[in-house]
Write a structure and sequence with these properties.
CATH architecture of the largest domain: 3-Layer(aba) Sandwich
Mean pLDDT: 95
Distance between the termini: 31 Å
Structural class: alpha/beta
Number of helices: 8
Radius of gyration: 18 Å
CATH superfamily of the largest domain: NAD(P)-binding Rossmann-like Domain
Strand content: 5-15%
CATH class of the largest domain: Alpha Beta
CATH topology of the largest domain: Rossmann fold
Strand order of the largest sheet: 3-2-1-4-5-6-7
Number of strands: 7
Length: about 260
């Protein structure tokens, strides 16, 4: 069992805002060394400065663009070559635009498939040797409750999130014997820029305010509110820890009980 968490290095994608940033901050508090990645270098520098270093960690970042899978592949391999192995992978990428599936252009599916599943796969393949060498690995995909219950007006997202969930389950069966777990965290409505954008689209159609729509979203949960990013991050941090060593291949909703299926 690994007890010195600062010897474990976590790559957190989409880590300059929202759930990704909250996850990076929580992992740093727990003692992990964290590598951030996103498109905007200035935002990466700002996010890096917020990470806890009381356990002697050396946090880092590299710039990547998930709309360019080959560029991402080059960036992650270069980072590992120059800085050493990574042992945790937190896949977190902004979702496709909202809209009915019947109106979606086929190109939207291809773009989302590349941005989510293909990029996740590229990162997994790059990091896997380091996980195996350490005898410790965590792959955690932050996706959506839509893998259990498709969400209205999110046709492309519902489709691609389901593909990622099944990719993850397949990986879990292949990697468990190496001490590597693969799990999905399924956030419900969470106080992020993404949710505000979805609410804004609906507001333009209904005439309601964004605040009213967000409040309505909160009422769909038995908790009668939307989540904060830190609440999702807490679930991710547990699955990343040694305490979750025998939890593998699951979908963990963090939605206040909104999803109607078990």
């Amino acid at each position: 069992m690994i007890t010195e968490l600062n010897s474990l290095r976590a790559l957190v994608c989409g880590s300059t805002q929202g759930i990704g940033l909250a996850v990076a901050q929580q992992l740093a508090k727990d003692g992990f060394s964290v590598c951030l990645t996103a498109r905007n270098e200035e935002k990466l520098k700002t996010a890096l400065a917020t990470l806890d270093i009381t356990n002697g960690q050396a946090h880092q970042y590299f710039v990547s663009d998930f709309s360019n899978p080959e560029g991402l592949k080059h960036a992650v391999h270069q980072f590992i070559s120059e800085n050493g192995d990574l042992h945790l992978l937190i896949n977190n990428t902004g979702g496709p635009k909202s809209g009915p599936i019947v109106d979606a252009d086929p190109a939207e599916f291809l773009a989302a498939f590349n941005q989510h599943l293909i990029c996740n796969h590229i990162l997994m393949q790059a990091i896997l040797p380091g996980m195996k060498a350490k005898g410790y690995g965590r792959i955690i995909n932050i996706i959506s409750t839509s893998v259990k219950q498709p969400l209205p007006n999110l046709g492309v997202s519902n489709t691609i999130r389901g593909a990622v969930a099944n990719w993850s389950k397949t990986l879990a069966t292949e990697l468990g014997g190496f001490g590597i777990t693969v799990n999905n965290v399924l956030p419900g409505a969470t106080n992020t820029q993404r949710l505000t954008e979805i609410a804004s689209v609906k507001a333009n159609k209904t005439g309601e305010s964004v605040e009213e729509i967000l409040a309505e979203m909160g009422q769909e949960s038995p908790m009668k509110r939307i989540a904060e990013p830190e609440e999702v991050a807490a679930a991710v941090a547990f699955l990343a820890s040694p305490s979750a060593s025998y939890i593998n291949g699951i979908n963990l909703p963090v939605d206040g009980g909104r999803t109607k299926s078990l």
